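can u do me a favor
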């Protein structure tokens, strides 16, 4: 059993600390937010993550997990300290490292014994060296330490499972002994452990996220072409996925990627590329395509409904994806903003993210459930792929609406079944718009020029 300190109690820090406690270590999670620490000490979760509350409660009861605002309490007796603080997008997309700096400085000023400092946060290539420099300069007296990069690959909504069942553990350090000790912490996970240098480990994280984002923009571009040519992108993706070199994951066309990682990480990688004199044309295209997925919805609504002023439009699902309450870079937020600019009355419903939505979009009318959302709407836009939306009573939804127009931004539904229910159904890349009044397939919108 090892004593581990984790700085930062966001979804990465809290999940990392709780899972390490669950593996039998003694973990102290530190945060500068009194409010967050008070919530955690009271057994309340500051984030929605399936399974987390139960795992926290169990490990707190077992005396393996505790929460504090005191770095001294966190670091006393600790052999490892994970920096798991936020690295939001700053100016020009550059990662804002103020919280990493604060953590490194406080660790340096507080530590009283040799320590392995582990960057868990997603940080630009070269940050490990920078952290080492900060610690050396800040320590009141020299105390041995090493810096290791250990990027996380956790998905919101499945973060615990992703931590306990990683495809790989990535460790980067100039100090092979330190890397070996951190590898020991992860042995129980029985996953491949990649040990490399600091910069390569940091780049593995960015390159992985940027590649996943590229897959999403790729399939969304294919979806736009499918709409023009009458193919169904869901079946195209299925046919592609049998190729082992392609695989079937991350080929769901929709409203594009959101969340706290992909948008920020692709932007940060573009920024790194630019300031070092390369030309990230592909990364730019990935971001352009992603941005236009939201705008296409407005264009198609205008095509279908004509003038949007004073229309009532419902957003079904508000979180950036299912199984989370996170609204960061959620398509629903941008679509609501674009619709309000058109004078549309926007209503929203989400099974979990209602509190977050009320904070993020205080002037949005919030519905009780999907049927209340449908009441009086001229159109519904499906923004989040919650399972509870997959089996709605579509006859009841249809009867509640003023006009039966559905934009299925996550391709949850079968176009034929929706037509049978009397809807004018628009998916993403589903080949043709099925018009409920006739069997004629109405070919789709002119593509929007991406470069605006
Ligand atoms: C992502 C990475 O997957 C994870 O490894 C990293 O550590 C953090 O960022 P997360 O953002 O939580 O995780 O969610 P993820 O499930 O990866 O989805 C990211 C976005 O892509 C979501 O907006 C999702 O709706 C979208 N997406 C995902 C698609 O549009 N199509 C897909 O096929 C998959």
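np, heres the sequence
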């Amino acid at each position: 059993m090892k004593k581990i300190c984790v700085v930062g109690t966001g979804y990465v820090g809290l999940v990392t600390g709780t899972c390490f406690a669950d593996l039998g270590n003694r973990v102290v999670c530190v945060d500068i937010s009194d409010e967050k620490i008070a919530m955690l000490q009271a057994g309340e979760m500051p984030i929605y993550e399936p399974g987390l509350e139960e795992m926290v409660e169990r490990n707190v009861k077992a005396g393996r997990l505790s929460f504090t605002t005191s770095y001294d309490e966190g670091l006393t007796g600790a052999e490892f300290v994970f920096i798991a603080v936020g690295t939001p997008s700053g100016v020009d997309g550059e990662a804002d490292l103020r919280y990493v700096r604060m953590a490194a400085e406080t660790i340096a000023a507080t530590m009283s014994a040799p320590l392995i400092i582990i960057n868990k946060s997603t940080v630009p290539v070269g940050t490990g060296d920078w952290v080492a420099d900060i610690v050396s300069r800040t320590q009141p007296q020299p105390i041995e330490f090493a810096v290791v990069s250990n990027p996380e690959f956790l998905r919101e909504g499945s973060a615990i499972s992703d931590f306990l069942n990683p495809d790989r553990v990535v460790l980067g350090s100039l100090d092979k002994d330190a890397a070996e000790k951190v590898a020991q912490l992860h042995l129980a996970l029985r996953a491949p452990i990649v040990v490399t240098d600091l910069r390569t480990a940091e780049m593995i994280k960015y390159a992985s996220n940027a590649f996943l984002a590229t897959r999403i923009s790729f399939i969304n571009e294919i979806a736009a072409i499918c709409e023009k040519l009458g193919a169904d992108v869901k079946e195209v993706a299925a046919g592609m996925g049998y190729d082992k070199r392609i695989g079937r994951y991350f080929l769901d066309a929709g409203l594009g990627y959101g969340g706290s990682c992909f948008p920020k990480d692709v932007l940060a990688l573009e920024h790194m590329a630019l300031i070092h004199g390369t030309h990230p044309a592909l990364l730019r295209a990935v971001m352009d395509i992603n941005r236009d997925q939201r705008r296409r919805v407005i264009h198609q609504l205008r095509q279908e409904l004509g003038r949007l002023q004073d229309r009532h439009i419902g957003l079904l699902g508000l979180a950036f994806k299912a199984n989370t309450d996170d609204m960061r870079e959620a398509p629903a937020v941008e679509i609501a903003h674009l619709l309000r600019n058109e004078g549309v009355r926007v209503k929203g419903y989400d099974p979990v993210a209602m509190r977050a939505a009320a904070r993020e979009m205080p002037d949005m009318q919030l519905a009780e459930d999907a049927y209340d959302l449908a009441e009086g709407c001229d159109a519904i836009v499906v923004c989040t792929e919650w399972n509870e939306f997959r089996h709605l009573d579509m006859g009841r939804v249809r009867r509640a609406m003023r006009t039966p127009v559905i934009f299925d931004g996550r391709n949850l539904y079968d176009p034929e079944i929706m037509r049978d229910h009397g809807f004018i159904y628009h998916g993403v890349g589903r080949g043709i718009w099925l018009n409920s009044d006739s069997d004629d397939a109405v070919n789709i919108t002119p593509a929007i020029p991406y470069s605006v």
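The pocket of uridine-5'-diphosphate-xylopyranose is lined by residues 152-156, 209, 212, 216, 250-252, 254, 256-259, 261-262, 320-321 (CB under 6 Å). hope that helps!!
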